[in-house]
């Protein structure tokens, strides 16, 4: 049995980067929703943070969906 260490390292590195990116985007999205709630309590619309939050969540869904596609398509 031969292990391709380069491929294993590549998969590990890409997985690590994907986890950091998705987690960071999700955190920014939650922060955007919190900023919108704070803005609404202050009497403003809070449309900017809400739009940013939706964009972050959309990217998270796209990354997770692409990962599922890669797993199922094989």
Overview of the structural elements:
- The chain is mainly α and 74 residues long.
- It has one domain (5-73).
- It is built from two helices and no strands.
- The chain has helices at 5-42, 47-73.
- α1 (5-42) packs antiparallel against α2 (47-73).
- The radius of gyration is 18 Å and the shape is elongated.
- Keywords: Membrane, Transmembrane, Transmembrane helix.
- The chain crosses the membrane at residues 7-30, 50-72.
Task: Give a summary of the structure in a few sentences.
Keywords: Membrane, Transmembrane, Transmembrane helix. By secondary structure, the chain is mainly alpha-helical.
| Helicity range | over 70%
- First CA to last CA: what distance? 23 Å
Q: Please state roughly what percent of the residues sit in beta strands, choosing from under 5%, 5-15%, 15-25%, 25-35%, 35-45% or over 45%.
A: under 5%
Give the overall shape, derived from the CA principal axes: elongated
Please state the structural category: mainly alpha
Report the order of strands and helices: HH
Instruction: Provide a count of the helices.
Output: 2
Largest sheet: none
Number of E-type strands: 0
Query: How would you describe the oligomerization state of the chains in this entry?
Result: single chain
Q: What is the total domain count?
A: 1
User: Using only CA atoms, what is the Rg?
Assistant: 18 Å
What is the arithmetic mean of pLDDT?
A: 93
Poorly predicted segments: none
């Amino acid at each position: 049995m031969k292990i391709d260490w380069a491929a294993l390292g590549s998969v590990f590195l890409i997985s690590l980067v994907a986890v950091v990116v998705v987690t960071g985007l999700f955190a920014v999205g939650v922060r955007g929703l919190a900023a919108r709630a704070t803005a609404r309590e202050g009497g403003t619309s809070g449309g900017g943070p809400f739009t940013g939050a939706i964009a972050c969540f959309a990217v998270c869904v796209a990354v997770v969906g692409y990962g599922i596609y890669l797993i199922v398509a094989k």
